[in-house]
Each structure stands twice: as structure tokens, then as C-alpha cells.
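Input record (one chain):
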Amino acid sequence: MKKFMKWMPISMMVLGGMFMMTGCSDDNEPATEEPGKETPAAEVTIQFTYETLTVEAAGGETEMGYTLKNAGTNPKLTGTCSEDWVTDIQGADGTLKMTVAANPETTERTATVTVTYSDDEENTASAELTVTQAAKAEEQFTITIPGECGSTWIPFEIQPKDQSAQYFLNIRPADEMEGFVSDEALFNSDMSDYQTLADQYGMSLNDVLAALGALVSGPMEDYLFTKLSPDSKYCIYCYGVEGGKLASPVTKVEASTTAAVPVDNQITIDVTSKLASAVAFTVDVTTFDAYALAVFNGSTSDADIEASLLGEDVSIFAGDQQLSLNTSLEAGKEYAIAAIGRAGNTATTKLFVTRFTAEEGQVVENLTLDMTTLAFDGDELAAHLGVDELKGTPILFNNIETNGTYTLTYPVTVEELADLRKQVEEQNPDKEITDETLYAVVLNALSAYSSPDRQSLWLASEGSWVMLSMTIDEAQKNYKVGAVNIEVNENTYSPVEEIDKYLGTNSSKVLLKKAGHLDVKKAAAMMKKYMDKKSTYSFKTSIKDMSKIKSMKK
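The corresponding structure, as predicted from the sequence alone:
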């Protein structure tokens, strides 16, 4: 059925339309622009990812995400902070960055960052962000400077909270410390050389630190850092070390040396061994001020000696010393050992000189060298000797019987030795490289890695090895080299009881190093330098001898 609209008078339709028109409010009418006026732009807003930015106590560069609503062309964000420990506040591409200084206090701290927006249309906006920084962990050490400093030394004392805790102690120029962004970065820098030694000797980092006396425990009173530059600011610091890992926050204190001034340091040099091959001497002093020390030909004048001691590339010492030369002198020739107080480039004492004539040691014409090289299962030998460090790898052992005075031993793999020979021959095309020459140069060039002992243990790996050894007479006139090839695998291991013929059950005096694994290119370069070098006078000194840490208690 069709439906039809009911008929309505036209007058009623018009009337309804009038009512509809009067029911519309003026507020609902479309906005119209007045002549000469522009529509205002929508307001710019800044929204941060979080209301609070949380930062670790160590500080550093940190960031927070943000979004912009109704941004114009080329938006820029800059910021200011209510506290001076938040700086360099800049925003771009949705990331707000700032630099937060390390928190020196053991309480949390808070700052308000005000971020300001601008663009090419001259729109502006601002927003606030709270920055909360964690408290610094409570320090485990107290470092104090108990008295006045000298031009080359700074006194210090340390009190640890835990008297049994082991810690590492060091000093650096204050401006150098600014380059470390965290305690971990400083720790890694300090440990880099020790880790290299650990890798070379196949030891743990903690064992190397302990063996070299780099870790101390308990309080330190009446100690000095010596051999410093005059008129300079330094930072003394320490931190706990456990298992080769950083175990506490770094404790720091700054102190400055004075300008260079004359000091009353009486230096006495006594030659205890005049053997040309093994010159040794002691140096006694009356203060801890630094001094330059060197050996000269006896014909060198005092004026030239003094000029040399105040020049470049001279060894600096402080405190009493027991030293020996690592270079043989010429028997029957006069030499001079001289020292002068020195702070920077300034002489602080008069010149002290001791002259002596080098004497020839015993010459052995018919040197003998009998080597016994054995391979052992590391786990079995560790149990037999009670030395846990032997576990986990095969062990090479070498015993030397000789009528010589000095010995050197170093094992290399067959492949390393062949590669090394090839590179040495390429570097020295005009020289004949016999086995005897190659072995002697290897041992001398790598003497820092070689064992000077007549018995030595080496952490090895399975494979083909060559044990190199040398013996030298007291006069260092004659030498004899030897080599023993040995296969290292479970079929060639000797019974652990075999070592008792040479060591008994005490291996405490036997050097334990990591065998082989040479950087052949570096070793070849060292050998080239050794073969080309001229005679120089330098000192054999241990890390402890060269330490800047001195006790004031003589």
C-alpha cells in the first residue's frame, strides 16, 4: 500500500520554519573573521616521555624523549636548570639531552629543568621536567693529606672501613681524571697493563695484582707519592678490588705540589758489584725528593753529566734504591754513576758522582747445557704439587744443568718458530740466520718474557713445541744455546712423579708463565731492534722499585 504525506497548509510550514530559526543560538553560528584580522594559530605544547628523569650517581650525558603538538617550522628546544649540576640542555628530533655531573654526596638530589620552545613563526612554549639523581654509594675509604707537600711529593694517609679489604691505590694529574666518565672506566684503564701481564702469564688478573704487590690492605700512614711534577694539581684515589673486579666506589682527594726549590738531599752511591756483566749499586738519600740517575763513560766531564741529567730521556727516582744494569760494560774501562736532585727541569741539589772501573768476570770456555723437557697433564700435576694454577691445560717443564752463570728459557710452537724465522730472514737479508743465532736472538730480544731460572713451568696447549734455552758465563763472553722438540698430548705426558727428581714437592720458586702464543710480527720487530741496537746503559728495576709510593718510615 502506498503511503502518502498528509497535506499541511503552507502557512503552517512557514510558521514551523520560523520557530526553527528562532531556536538557533548565536553561539552556534559559524565563526567569521572580522576584516583585517587573522585566525590565531593553535597553541604549541611539549610532552615528555616521563615526568621525572632518573639518573645514576655517576652522572654523564643522559636523555629523555619528547613530542611536540602544533609545532612550527624549524622547532628548537633549549633549557635551563635550577641547579648547576645539570648543563648542556638541548633538544632535537624528539630527544632532549643534558649533562649531569657526578653526585658527590651520599644523599639523593633533585633539580627542575625548564625547557623552552621556539620556531620560525615565533611561537613559544615551555615545560618543566624533574631530574632526580641517585646518591653516591657510601665510600669505603678515607684519604687525607696530613701535612705540607713538596715540589715532587705529596704525603697521604688512608683509612679503610674494612681493614681486611684489598684495594688499589694510584695518583693521576687532576685534569687527566676529568676524562673518565665512570668509576668502571677508571678501573679498566688502571687494570689494562696488569691484564696484559695476566694474559701473557696465563694467570688471573687478581693473581697478577697480588703477585706484584699492586693491592694493599689495612691503613696506610706516613706514606708519600713521589716523582711528581712541581707546581701541579694531582688526584689521589683508591678503590676496592675483589676477584679482579671493582668492588667499591672510587674515593678521591686532590692536592698540589709546590714550585721547584733547592732541597738538602744528600745522595750517596755505592757500587756493590763491579763485574762488567753484572754491575750493581745502591743509592742512599736523606729526603724523598726526586733525583735523576744515569751511568756514563768515565771520560765524561761533570758539566756534561749534569747537562745530561737535566735533559730528556733520563730515569727519575726517589728514596733509597738497589739497582743493577741490564747492559754489560767493558772490562777494564772506567765509568761514572751520577745523580742530581731534579724537580721538573730544575736542579734542586748539587751533582753527585761515583766513578769505578768495570772488572771482568769468570770466563768459561767450555759451557755445558743439558736440558730436560717434560710434558704433564695439568690437572694431575696440580694435585701432585698442590698448585691450583696448573689446572686446565697441559704443562711444560724445563730443567737446566749448566756450568754457566746465567740462563734464559722460552718455549714456542713449531709453527711460531718457523714463521718467526721467515720474518727475521726477510728483515735481515744480508745476515746469515743459523739456528744458534736465531735461538740466541729470540731469547735475548724476548728476555722480559723468558724465564731466568734453571727450572721453569709453562702453561701450554696440545701440539708441537720447541723449548729454547741459553746459558751464559759470568763474563758474558761465551754463551751456548739449546733446543728440545716435544710433542704435547695425552700420549706423551710423563708421570707426575718424574718432576720430583728436579723439584721435590716444592714448586714455590718456579716461575709459572703462559707458553708461546707469540705475536710473531711484534716479536720479529723486537728481534730486529735487538740485532741493530747499540750498547746503552739502562737499569733493571722491578715494578715495585719504580713505584711512586714510598713509606716515610725508614
